[in-house]
User: Which sequence fits this backbone?
């Protein structure tokens, strides 16, 4: 199993702005998943993108995947206070365990 | 439809004691994983079970053990508690291990 590395570690933006966070990984994958964690709570699965997909949308979320660069990005458009959370990526090779990095701590300022 | 439920939600134990944490997966989910999350860090993998068999174990001492029951619920046991075991313990279930996981809200364990 491999760990994704999220970047930046922390991000602070104004409400209404877009937030972009990145994930890099080292070896080939079957899919890559993004999760959100509100303070002290469980993680919430946001989106799964397969290795043969380049972009995926879900509401205000847009995920891209570049397998040649071994990287993914998560874009949150028109941010809201409720988007304040930590965001984790999890690159998957198969059925192995999910491995999480430190995540990106996103703060939306009113 | 109930999500992943964990019990208890909060727990305070003394060093040296033993603790059992419980997890009920989403109905139909056969894969259960356990994670430990220390404040300020990402979740660290402890165990994965699928169809009642252990499918993965993280880098945790033998004081940590787990099992999965015929109804796919799971228990995490920690013996001889240390102060460093204080953390949020998360359980996650999945219909298929390769797909997305649904996490419970966790058990906050404090060791004093």
Assistant:
């Amino acid at each position: 199993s491999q760990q994704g590395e999220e970047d930046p570690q922390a991000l602070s933006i104004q409400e209404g702005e877009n937030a972009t966070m990145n994930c890099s990984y080292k070896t080939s994958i079957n899919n890559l998943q993004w999760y959100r964690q509100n303070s002290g709570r469980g993680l919430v699965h946001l989106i799964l993108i397969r290795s043969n997909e380049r972009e995926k949308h879900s509401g205000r979320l847009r995920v891209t995947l570049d397998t040649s660069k071994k990287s993914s990005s998560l874009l949150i458009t028109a941010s809201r206070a409720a988007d304040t959370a930590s965001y984790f990526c999890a690159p998957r090779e198969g059925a192995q365990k999910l491995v999480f990095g430190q995540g990106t701590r996103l703060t939306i300022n009113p | 439809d109930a999500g992943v439920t964990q019990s208890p939600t909060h727990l305070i134990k003394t060093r040296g004691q033993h603790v059992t944490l419980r997890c009920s997966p989403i109905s139909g989910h056969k894969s259960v994983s356990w994670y430990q999350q220390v404040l300020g860090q990402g979740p660290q993998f402890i165990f994965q079970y699928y169809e009642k068999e252990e499918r993965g174990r993280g880098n945790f001492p033998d004081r940590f053990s787990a099992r999965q029951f015929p109804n796919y619920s799971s228990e995490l046991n920690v013996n001889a508690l240390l102060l460093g075991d204080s953390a949020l313990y998360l359980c996650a279930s999945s219909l298929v291990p390769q797909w997305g996981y649904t996490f419970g809200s966790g058990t906050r364990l404090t060791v004093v």
